[in-house]
Amino acid sequence: MPGETLAQQAFGAGANWMTIICAAPLATVEKGHTMAQRCGGEIQIELFGNWTLDDARDWHRIGVRQAIYHRGRDAQASGQQWGEADLARMKALSDIGLELSITGGITPADLPLFKDIRVKAFIAGRALAGAANPAQVAGDFHAQIDAIWGGARA
């Protein structure tokens, strides 16, 4: 289904944001973005697999301002941490002008790693779902966000 049609359905149903996978043709991203703008919403590019900073520049050029950066479940399970390569790519995306939603086994202790990144959101499913006290972990996230980014939340 084309990006424009999906965007019309998503935003027509009340969505604020909709993801489009990074492998989608630029025309699909552009049509989805145009519909998002008409409806007062935004497109997030879901970064997974093969993509380049040139792709990111193209998305930004057509008006997309958000992306989602993943660390896969298998990578986390095998002990892979957020490394310099990840942080450098996120910084480069930020420098292009994209705001990032970051996901992949994020914990409150990880947040200082992202202080130089234009973070839009943290997606923290595993940290909350696996916690003995999810409300405490959520509070820890909020405290870290306030300490690093000054408490300015939407």
Automatic annotation (TrEMBL):
It holds the Pfam family OMPdecase. Its EC number is 4.1.1.85. Belongs to the HPS/KGPDC family. KGPDC subfamily. One of its GO terms (molecular function) is orotidine-5'-phosphate decarboxylase activity. It is an enzyme of class 4 (lyase). InterPro entries: Aldolase_TIM, OMPdeCOase_dom, RibuloseP-bd_barrel. The keyword Endoplasmic reticulum does not apply. It comes from Escherichia coli. Keywords: Carbohydrate metabolism, Decarboxylase, Lyase. It catalyses: 3-dehydro-L-gulonate 6-phosphate + H(+) = L-xylulose 5-phosphate + CO2. This is 3-dehydro-L-gulonate-6-phosphate decarboxylase. PANTHER family: 3-KETO-L-GULONATE-6-PHOSPHATE DECARBOXYLASE SGBH-RELATED (PTHR35039:SF3). GO terms for biological process: 'de novo' pyrimidine nucleobase biosynthetic process; L-ascorbic acid catabolic process. Residues 3-138 form the Orotidine 5'-phosphate decarboxylase domain.
